[in-house]
Design brief:
The complex is a heterodimer of chains A (547) and B (394). Chain A is α/β, with parallel strands linked by helices and 547 residues long. Helix content of chain A is 43%, strand content 10%. Classes of the chains: A alpha/beta (547), B alpha+beta (394).
Amino acid sequence: MSSSMCLRCLKRSLVPIESSLPLTAGQRAAFSTSPSLAANPPKKTAKPTKTNARQGKTLKLTKNKRAATTRPPATGERKALRKRVVLSNTNALDVPGLQDLTTDSVSGVKLRELQDKVAGLGNDTVDALRALEAFKPTQGWSLFRRPASLVRRETVELAELLQAIQDSNGHQVERRVVFGEKVGGKSVLLLQAMAMAYLKGWLVVHYPEAKDMTIAHTAYQPVTTADGKTIYIQPQYTAHLLGNIAKANRGLLSNMRLAGQHQLPVPLPPNCSLLRLVELGANDADLAWPVWQALWTELTTPSQPEQEGLQRPPLFVGMDGVDFIMRDSAYLDSEAQPVHAHELALVRDYADILSGKTSLPNGGLVLAATTGSNRPSAPTFHHYLNRNHAEAHLPTLVSLRDRLRAQAVDAHSASDLNFAELDSLLSTLPPSLADQLHTFRRRAMASQRSNASVAKFLAACDTFQPELPHWDPYLAIDQRVADVMGNVRVQKLQGLSKEEARGVMEYYAQSGMLRHTVTDGLVSEKWTLAGNGIIGELEKGAVRARF
Amino acid sequence: MESALLRTGFRRAMVACQNPAKRRVARQPRRFFATPVEPQGEASELQSAPDAVYASNGGRAAKSRARAERVNKDRAVSDHDQTFQAAPQIRFTSDGEQFSSSRPSAELIENDTASRRGRGGYGGGPPGRGGAASYGRGPPNQEDDPSRNILRHIRIVPASPSYFTATPRYTDDLLALSALLRKHQLLPLLPPGEAPRVAWKTIDQYKTELAEPIRSKSYNTLLQLLKRLNYIHPSLIPDEVTESLEKYKRDVQPHLNVPNPIIVNQYGVAKAVGRRKSSSAQVYLVEGTGECLINGKSLTEYFGRLHDRESAIWALKATQRLDKYNVWALAAGGGTTGQAESITLGVARALLAHEPDLKPALRRAGCVTRDPKRVERKKPGKLKARKMPAWVKR
């Protein structure tokens, strides 16, 4: 039978519309805020309170925590990275026909053929020089394929000097200081001298940075000498130097044996080679100083060529940055007074060799290079550099004056005399002498122009007494330095000549580092911009300039 | 009333003397007009009629009329004819030399009518014959005043006919220059733009000198003449032209202040000075191999920066003459870059002394112009030249 209402309404009528008890939220609706509103507020759980030492606001760096994702460097790694020397650049071109410095080519005559050209260095030589720390990180070795340097006029002169010393069979010792403008090539000249000495079979000892000895970065300890004076030894640095010597002169030292007896804290084997001795000192800082003394005693004993192992070759002793040892060091003694650099044992030994107090019976070359860019104030030393430089040129000036005087005696009037030599000499003299010559030249020219009698010119000659620079008596002189420098020859390193500049620029171009054609104009331009050919500035302007 | 008039008259005269712009032609009193001379009876009739017309003039017309009446009364006694007396004919002199002395002079006039003209009003007789001066037959009652007599016969001849213009001295100048131009207008001229530069007097200076009211238009006309005369070729310019141009030139000719030329001396050295900011440099340039010394030091010793080194010898670098010349410089003042740039300018100037044809190349290289920039001074109320202190609301 059909109902009066629909099925839906029937269903609805069966279910009560409103019940007194409300249905749960889950039955009534999927989402509702009623339960949450009706609920009690959440209970605060008791947190453990942090005991804060500092009350109030504190700096919170939790957000800025440096993520330590990288491995921290090992001890000494950063220093090694800083001081590493890269000698090769594979992107640079290999220069064809680059001749190396070999034992034959290093003789003075042969080297003249290589003058104004760049010569490379062989692998053995490079190893030895690297062991001696002759290459510096600030130099431009990392720009080229392999280490090479320009053979300058001064290089050829050094080669000839080395040859002469070798030929003299131990009777000649040359002591020299090289100074000049910064980036002038002093260190590289020292390096070339070391390379040539190594190739000739000499023993090479090198103090790479005198600064390292005197700025109090290495340990020192006082030692009383036999005559009661206190000197300071630097064991760690001595060990370091001994290590360098051992690595560089391995071949030579292994063939030499001890000539005399030495008192060392450890007993030495009977037929100990010098290499063994040096390595002993290199490995142990406590033994370093006695080993050093023993080594120097050995090296300064005269050579006995007929005995095997007792032949001693000539010695090359080089030092870079010699200004630092010609003043007070940064060390303090027990009274907190500054220790003079010459009171350091290592420095004292070198100073004795440089001044000639300690003789080298087997001959040798003692070469020191000053530093230009890092120059400390050492007034006495610089005064002596200027003085000795002037002293070297004084004879030429005096002889010129005497020659002109002799001419004047025969001549009728002043206008007959020829003063061309004066002009040519003026450019080569050091400034102190050049000023005096300039005054004399002016008087000579005046007498020539006024057509005066010869007597006037002769009077000018008599009054012209060239003098060396004087030390200001109102300043305190460093007597120790004065004693050392009194007898040392001095050489000033000037800029390159135009031919030398051309040679080195051609090498740059062949290496691919200089992208211009090397013409006379370009060479002159770079030469002038380099302050009349200072090689470091030349390299900067030609190779390193980034435009 | 008479005194008041006199005073006004004086005041006007003084103002007119001091201010040339206010010099106007004074309104001539009626007695100088050609008015008919009537007998007494008719005169009164005639004069009564214009009374109404002239009453507006105030007392002045009445006064002059009163004077005329008195005079007419005198004349009416002698002359009964009613004649219109025309003004005496202007007598022109054909004496071309009357202004030749260029100084004011006095001349005696020998004419009857002129003497009669001296008597007030136009009771003048028949027109004069002109010619020789003679003592006219003066009225018997005036012969006893000889000085007054002479004044009637004297004629002042001014120095120049421009006297009769508003700006006599200007007119004289203009005419003199025009005459000069007309005289020398066929002389050859310099090409346009190449006349010697002259600083002519300004109109104010000219007016002050002449003390005359000259319009700028009039002065420009004068300037045109001067400029045209200035164009005459200097090798053919007559002395009179040069002399007459001189007084129109300013006292100080700024274009004459030329710098001394930089010359290459007997030793081949050229010395030049260059300046930049507060640095100055004396540069000696001589032919050589490319060496450079600044204050006794080499280029690298003195300038640590490559840029400064290049700047200092930029003039030589830009013209590719670095290996041809030696430079010896003394630099002082300022800082590194200032000294380097001052040496640039000095080298460029010295190089121009050696090779003047390099000027366009050096200008393109930027070495020729002296950079006028200087450090701006600090001003009060500011922290630096321009930087203001932090703004504060209150």
